[in-house]
Design brief:
Elements (H helix, E strand, L loop, with lengths): L1 E6 L2 H5 L2 H15 L4 E6 L9 E5 L2 E6 L4 H9 L5
Parallel strand pairs: 1-2
Antiparallel strand pairs: 1-3, 3-4
The chain binds FE2/S2 (inorganic) cluster (FES).
Length: about 80
């Protein structure tokens, strides 16, 4: 199962972690229910750019809600069977 971790540390939380989590969950529900698990994470030490997300061991910084569909299509969907 593909794992997505969204930082919910204080800096990322203030920059919209909850919206990012909701955006992932909505896409998962729409495109491949049950294919991805979304977890909250403590600070990943990359606080400066905004919400930090880890997808399949790759880190993305400064993620906003609007970025989620692009990340999903590029880094998740190709790995879903
Ligand atoms: S609070 Fe999210 S990377 Fe530090």
């Amino acid at each position: 199962m593909i794992e997505v971790e969204v930082c919910v540390g204080s800096s990322c939380f203030l920059r919209g972690s909850e919206d990012v989590v909701r955006a992932f969950q909505a896409l998962i529900e729409e495109k491949c229910p049950g294919c991805v698990v979304v977890k909250g994470s403590f600070c990943m030490g990359r606080c400066t750019g905004g919400v930090t997300v880890k997808i399949r061991d790759e880190y993305f910084s400064g993620v906003r809600q609007a970025d989620v569909p692009r990340l999903f299509d590029k880094y998740i969907l190709p790995h879903v069977r």
